[in-house]
Amino acid sequence: MEKRLTGRIAPERICLLKTPRPPEGAVERFLAISDPTGLTSDAMDELGIASGVIGASVLKPTIPGTTMVGPALTVRNVLQRIDPLEGARKHVNRMAEFEAHNLASPGDVLVIQGVAHMSNMGGISALTGKRQGEAGAIVMGGIRDIAHSRVVGYPLWANEVSPVTGKWRLETVEINGTVQIGEVRVEPGDLVVADDSGVCFIPRDYILEVLELVEKKAKAEDVRCKAIVGGAAVPDISPSTYGEKEE
Amino acid sequence: MEKRLTGRIAPERICLLKTPRPPEGAVERFLAISDPTGLTSDAMDELGIASGVIGASVLKPTIPGTTMVGPALTVRNVLQRIDPLEGARKHVNRMAEFEAHNLASPGDVLVIQGVAHMSNMGGISALTGKRQGEAGAIVMGGIRDIAHSRVVGYPLWANEVSPVTGKWRLETVEINGTVQIGEVRVEPGDLVVADDSGVCFIPRDYILEVLELVEKKAKAEDVRCKAIVGGAAVPDISPSTYGEKEE
Amino acid sequence: MEKRLTGRIAPERICLLKTPRPPEGAVERFLAISDPTGLTSDAMDELGIASGVIGASVLKPTIPGTTMVGPALTVRNVLQRIDPLEGARKHVNRMAEFEAHNLASPGDVLVIQGVAHMSNMGGISALTGKRQGEAGAIVMGGIRDIAHSRVVGYPLWANEVSPVTGKWRLETVEINGTVQIGEVRVEPGDLVVADDSGVCFIPRDYILEVLELVEKKAKAEDVRCKAIVGGAAVPDISPSTYGEKEE
Amino acid sequence: MEKRLTGRIAPERICLLKTPRPPEGAVERFLAISDPTGLTSDAMDELGIASGVIGASVLKPTIPGTTMVGPALTVRNVLQRIDPLEGARKHVNRMAEFEAHNLASPGDVLVIQGVAHMSNMGGISALTGKRQGEAGAIVMGGIRDIAHSRVVGYPLWANEVSPVTGKWRLETVEINGTVQIGEVRVEPGDLVVADDSGVCFIPRDYILEVLELVEKKAKAEDVRCKAIVGGAAVPDISPSTYGEKEE
Amino acid sequence: MEKRLTGRIAPERICLLKTPRPPEGAVERFLAISDPTGLTSDAMDELGIASGVIGASVLKPTIPGTTMVGPALTVRNVLQRIDPLEGARKHVNRMAEFEAHNLASPGDVLVIQGVAHMSNMGGISALTGKRQGEAGAIVMGGIRDIAHSRVVGYPLWANEVSPVTGKWRLETVEINGTVQIGEVRVEPGDLVVADDSGVCFIPRDYILEVLELVEKKAKAEDVRCKAIVGGAAVPDISPSTYGEKEE
Amino acid sequence: MEKRLTGRIAPERICLLKTPRPPEGAVERFLAISDPTGLTSDAMDELGIASGVIGASVLKPTIPGTTMVGPALTVRNVLQRIDPLEGARKHVNRMAEFEAHNLASPGDVLVIQGVAHMSNMGGISALTGKRQGEAGAIVMGGIRDIAHSRVVGYPLWANEVSPVTGKWRLETVEINGTVQIGEVRVEPGDLVVADDSGVCFIPRDYILEVLELVEKKAKAEDVRCKAIVGGAAVPDISPSTYGEKEE
C-alpha cells in the first residue's frame, strides 16, 4: 500500500519514501553501551572513517542523560525570501518536517539541516514525532517549545533555541537527500548515536564494523574500570584499553 | 506619599518612578498558557509587531522549567572608565540596580542592558528583588551567585555568567528609560514573557491584542494535540492550527 | 620513597612531582562559604590581584550545584602533528594526564591547558582522578564521557564537550609547569575555587589573605541578607556589605 | 546547438543550462551609478523586497574599487565525506565550478554557496571565468590564489581566504538551483550588484523597478552633493534626498 | 549668535552644543608623531589611564596610511522598533548624525556608538562632515558608501561595512553625551588618536600629560632606530626606549 | 665564537641557538613559484602531510602582494600575571622577541605563538628584524606600528592588530621550542611559505619532497593557463593539472 503524503512538499523532493533500516539488532546493541559516543568516535577513527562527530557543546541535548540511536531520516530547510511579517499575514507556511514524521518508521531519527536564528521544530511537531515512534531528532538550527518536547519525552540535540517560528521564514526543500550538519555530511540511513557528549554519524555501510569494535572496546573498558576501582596503581593501569599498539 | 530614593543614581536619571502596569489580568492569562513564548512570537508576527524576541540560546534561563511574565522595569549600565583594581581599592561603586528594586512594583521584571564580561546582578540583589515581589530579571550581560538566586527562587535569563563584580567596573546611568537588549528595543512597561525557549518583549500598546491571539492559538493547539494523541494520520493533522491561510 | 612514574611523558617534562600544598585548613574554610567565587573575586579585586577569574559561561560546570576548592596540578597539551586517522591506526597515544593522576595528592585539582575541538579528559580518566582523591578538574578544551564522570562524582569545569578523542590528536608536553587558561596564567599550587558562577585562581602566596577577606565579607553579607529578609527598606540596606568606602 | 558538458557533475544536477538574462541595458545602467549598493539596498527597502543584502565586512572584495553587476549563475557545494589525505592520494576531485564556467554567458556572476575553511575557487578557475566573459564571482566560503585572480582582473567577493583546496574535500551538487548565501536566498538570474560596501541580490522580477528607483535617487543625491559642496547650511540640506516623506 | 539646529533630534538630547577644545597645539603635535597610537597607548599605560584603546582589527581604517587626531563629538544610536520595510515605505527617518555635522567645529572627530549590521554613516554624510572641516569619524557599527568617503578624503575607522541603511532601522538618541565604544567609555572632548594600528581615546584632562610623555618616547625611539640602522649589536640596543626601569 | 645573548630570557629557555637551515636553494626555488601557498598545500595533501596550513582570513598579510619563504625561528609568549598598569609603572618588561632577532640567521622567519588582544611585535622590533636579514614574521596574536613595519619592508602575517603593548602584559617563555599556531604545530626549522592566500608550514624533513611536487604542479599549471588563454573549450581543459588520477 502506498503511503499517503501530506502535500506539504512536492513529491519529487522526497528522495526516499523509507529510510534504509540498520542491521537487525544494531540499535539495541549500541543502546546497551553506556555513554556510547566516545567509543563510537574512537572506533570510527581506528577504522579510518573521517569527519563524523559533533560535540555536545555544538549540538546540545534537551534531555541530558538520554542516549539515542537510530537511522537518519534527513530534512533540508533553506530560507524563504519574503518579509516574514508579510509571510505571517498571508500564512505562507513552507515548513514540511511533518512530511518526515509522516514517512518515519519507528526508531528513525530526524536529522534536520535547518536555518539559523529560528525554530525548525516545535512542540506539536515533537509530539507527532514521538507518536510516530521516532527516537528523536538532531537539528542544526533553532528549535522551540523545549518544555513541551521534554514533557512528551522526545529528545533533541540542537545548536540553538528560539521562540521565533520558521513557518514563514524557511522552506523545506528536500527529504531523505544528502544533508550537511555542521562539518559532517549525512546520508539517509546513516546511524545516529547521540548522548551527553555529542553526536556520531556512522555511514550506513560501516555500522556493524563500528559496532563490533565498540563492543570490544566497551569490554576492555569494563576490565580497566574494575582494576581502577580495585586499587591498581596508576602506572599499572594498562593503557591498552585506550587501544594503543601494545594491546 | 513620595518614594524615598536610595541615592545610588541621580534622580534626574530615573525616567519613571513607577513602571506602567499591564492590563488587569493579562499577566495571569499569559501564565496560564504552557510554554507561551512560541505562540506569543507567532502572534506578534501575525500582528506585524517586529523585532521583539530573543532565543534561549542567547538569554539562558537560570531556573529551567520556569515561565515568567511581567512589565519591564528597565536599567541601563555602561562601563566606568577607571582601572578596576583602583576602583576596588577606593570602593567606587556606581551600580544602581538597587534603585530599581526600590522602585519595583510587585510583578515587575527587571530588564537590564548590562555590560559584558562582568556581573550586573548578584545574589543579594536577587534576594532583594524577590522580597520586593519582582517576577525576576532579564540581563544582557553577566550575572553571578547563580546558586543563591536559584535558592531564593528568583529566575533570571542572562547571556553570561561571571564571578567578576560590576561594582567598580560599571555605572548605572538610567532607570526606566529606553534600553536595547540584543537586537530588541525595550521600553518600560513592555510585557516580558519568558520560558525555556526564550524571551518575548510585547510593546505595551499591543499586550491585549497579542494575548487574545495567543489564547485563540493555544486552544487550537490543544485540539490538535488531542487529535495527534488520538491517532489521527499525519496528513490529516490539519495544518490550520499552525495558523495557515485555510484556517 | 620515590614515586613510580607511568612513562607516558618524559620525566624532565614534569616540573614538580608534588603540587605545593595550600595553607592548612584553607580548603575547608573556602568550602564553608556558599557560592564562594563572587566573594573571592571581590577580595582579589580589593587586594589588587589581577586577572584571575573566568566565568561559568566559558568554563561550564558538568555537575551544577557543586563547589570545588583545591590546589592546581597543571597539565599542558598541544596538538600532535599527524593525520589523526593515521595516528589511530598506529595507536600513537601521547596523552599523559594519567601521569598527573599518578602524581596527584588528595584534594588536588587538575588544571589542563587543553586543545580545542577534542577531548582532553574522558570517563576512565575521571574515574581514576576520583579514586586518587582529586577534587576534580578544570579543562580549557574539550572533555567527553560526561555521563560517566557525573556518575562517579568527579566534577569538571570545561569550555567544550566532544566525543572526539585527543589520544592521537594531542600530546601532553608539561606537568606542573605554567599554564594559560583563557586569559589567566596559572602556576602549580595556585588555589582553584569553582562554583556555578565560574572559577577563581588565587596565586599561592595570597591564599590566606584572600580567604580572610572572603570570610569577613561573607559575615557582612549574612547580616545584610537577614536585614533584607527582615524587611528593611531598600534605601536602608546599607551598601556597606558591598564593600564600599563608608564601610 | 547543444552545449557540450564537462562531465564533472551529473547532467540532471544542472537545473538550467543558461542563466536567465537581465532586462536589456539594466547592467550598464547599474554600472553607471557610482557606489550603487547603498542606493540599491534603499530601493529594495522602499519596494518591500526583503533580505537581499550582505555587507562587505562579510563578503570582502578582492579588488577594492570595483563595481560588479550581473545575473547570478549559482553553484552549490557540500562537503565530501572522506579523509582528505586519502582523497588527495586517490585524486577524488568532485569540484565542478568549471561546469559553471562552461555554461556561463558573458556577464554572468558565479554565486557559490561554498564550504567553509577551504577554497571553492582558485586562480586557474578565475582565469577561466575571466576568459568566458564572466563579470566575477561571489563565494560564501573560502577562495585561494588571490594574487592570480587579481592579476587576471577577475573580482571576487568572498568571506574567507585559504590555500587549502576543496578538490578532495567538497563536492559540487547543483548548478543553477536555489542557493543560500549567508542569510539571503538567491535564484539563478537574480541580479548581483556588488561594490566596496557589499553585495545586493535583486530578485529577477524586480530588476527594472529597483533600477528606476535607484536612478531617481542617484539624481537626487547629485543635487544634494552639489548643494553641500556649494556651501548650503547643514539645516538647509534637505533630508528629502534621503527619501523621506516630504520628498 | 545661536546655532540653528536641524530639528532631526530633540534639542534636550544634545548635551553640549560645542565639543570641548583640546589644548592649543596638541592636535598638531600628535600629528607630528609618526604611527602615534603605539606610543600613546604606552604613555596611557604608564600614567595609569585605563581602558582607552581599540585595535585596528576591530575598528578598521577605510583609508590606510592616515593618521587622525581630534576631539570627540559623540553620537549615540539605538534601534528603532519597527518593521524596517514598513519604516521605509513610510519614510520614518530617525538618524541624526547630520545634527552632529551641524554642530561640529573644525577638527572634530565624530565618535558614533552605532547599531550593528546596518550603516550609521553614508557617503553624503561623509561629504558633509568633510565640508564642515571634521577630521573624520569613528563608528562602532556599520558604515556604507566606502568608495565615496574615500574619494572625498574623509577617513573612518569602523567595525562593519554594510549597504543596509540605518535610516528606518535606528534612531539617534543623544549627541555629546557619554558613549561606549567597544569596551571604552568616551566623553565629548576626549582626544581621539587613530592610525593603522588602531584608536586611542585620551580622557580630556590627561591630553597634555600624555602628549609630553609621547614626545619624550618618540625622541628616544628615534635614537634607538638610528642605532639599529647604524649597526648596533642586538644586545646593545638598549631596552630603555621601551621605557623600562633602567631608563 | 659564541653568540652574545641579550639577557631578556633565561638561556635555558632557548632550545636552539641557531634555526636549522633549509636545503640549499629551496627558499629561492619556492620564491620562483608565483602564488605558492595553493600548490604547496596541494602537495602536502598528496604527500599525506597533515594539518599545516592557515588561511589569510586568519593570518592577514600586512604587505599584500608579498611572498615570504624561510625557516621558522619560533617564539612562545604567555600572559604575565600582574595588573598591566602596575607593570607599566614598574616597567616590568618580559618580552624577549629581541633575543630571537639576536639569534636570527639571514632568511629566518620569526613564528610567534603570541598572546591575544595586545601587540607581540612593534615597529622597532620589525626594523631590527629587517636589519638582521629576516624574511619577516608570522604572529598568532596582535602586532602594532603597522605603518612602520611597512615602511621598512618587513612583512608580517598576523591575526590581530592593536596599539596595546605586550611589554608589561606578556612574557616570552621559550625560543626555538615547539609552538602551536592556530591549529598547526610548528617546530624550529619548518619551512614557512606565505602569500596573499595564507601560510603553509612544511615539516623540515619534507621540504624537498614538497618542493619537487610543487614545481611539477607549477609547470602543469602553466601549460593549462596557456591552453585557457589560447581558447581551449572548457570541457577540453584537462582536469589533470588539478592533480587528478588520470594525470
Explain what this protein looks like in three dimensions.
The structure is a homohexamer of 247-residue chains. With 247 residues, chain A is of the alpha/beta class. Helix content of chain A is 28%, strand content 23%. The first copy, chain A, has seven helices and eleven strands. In chain A, the strands form two sheets. In chain A, strands 1, 2, 3, 4, 5, 6, 7, 10 and 11 form a nine-stranded mixed beta sheet that branches. Chain A has a two-stranded antiparallel sheet with strand order 8-9. Chain D binds chain E through residues 34-35, 37-38, 40-42, 45-46, 48, 50, 53-57, 65, 195-200, 221, 224-225, 228-229, 231, 233-235, 237, 239, 241-245, 247, and chain E through 4-8, 84-85, 88-91, 93, 98-99, 101-102, 117, 119, 122-124, 127-128, 131-132, 142, 144-148, 159-165, 167-168.
Please give the number of β-strands of chain A: 11
Gyration radius of chain A, in Å: 20 Å
Q: DSSP helix count of chain A?
A: 7
* % residues in beta strands of chain A: 15-25%
Mean pLDDT of chain A: 94
Q: Which two chains share the most extensive interface?
A: A-B, 41 and 40 residues
Please bin the fraction of helical residues of chain A.
25-40%
| Biggest sheet layout of chain A | 9 strands, mixed
H-E string of chain A = HHEEEHHEHEHEEEEEEH
Regions of chain A with pLDDT < 50 over 5+ consecutive residues?
A: 241-247
Net shape of chain A = elongated
For the record, give the distance between the C-alpha atoms at the N and C termini of chain A, rounded to a whole number. Answer: 53 Å
Structural class of chain A: alpha/beta
Quaternary form:
homohexamer
